Amino acid sequence: MADRIELFERRNRLRIVALVVLATLNYIVAVVMAAIALGIGVAVAIIFQGGDAFTDTDALPLFAIGLGVIVVGSTVIGTLVGLVRIPFLRRRLERQVLTETGARVISAEEQTEVENLLEGLAIASGLPPPRVAVIDDPAPNSFGVGTRPSNTVIGITTGLGDRLGRDEVEAVLAYEVSRIRSWDVALSSWAVALTSSAISAVDDPEGDSLLKSVLGFVPRRLAESLQVWALRDQGVERDRVAVQFTRNPKSLIDALEKLDADASMISHVSRATAPLWLEFPAHVLGPFPSRTTERLARELLLDERIDHLRELAGQPARG
Q1: What is the mean pLDDT of residues 4-11?
Q2: What H or E segment, with its residue span, contains residue 240?
């Protein structure tokens, strides 16, 4: 089991590094393109005003030098923007998810059975116990958020405790702990932190929605592609690790089958933060999801994953 978790952990940590690098490059490209567009606009304005700067051959080298200075300066600015913005996005993610879902972090004085179970599982895994948040929602589900295992929040809905038995709840918590241990929660959190702004901007009902849809189309598609790239094959691999980690794979499968069969949906969740949830909330995709989003959903939806879990646990396929 340790080898499987270590391999998955190594892969997830490498993907986090790649995500941060790609996000920084994205900021650099955005600033460079904006600067070049501004330079082209200035050049066009000069031409339309009858300027002869571009007919003078002596001016062309100066123009090329100026363009090079713009590119280099924009690269420096884009890098600085990334260095400042990426840590900010990481720090605000937890607050963003808790606010969006209406989750309430349980205080130290509120020692519940769920918190005790989670603490025992975490200690057995060599992890500091994650904080527990409760979402008042009848849909049975859970999420994990935190960009490093030492500082993670596990959120559970009230419906999870109402619909599942004690062994099934413990199996779900073990699943979440295995995700923390393997840095899967951290990878999902980084992916959401670095892409949620671009994805959510188009969905925000305030302002000129048509203008936002036009201007935000490319950034959103790039953000969705980055999410899909980072989380590709995660559903299968996290399930494989969870089956090896949990002491009761049958209870885990039973719990996931109940989640899959339950028709209720999480009330407060967005497309941007959907990958954090144990059961991917498919209703956030809307009536016309992009192919990129559909691909992510197929990898994270429970239906096909349950059959794979049964195979891993040596159980017969569902009838």
Answers
A1: 88
A2: helix 234-245
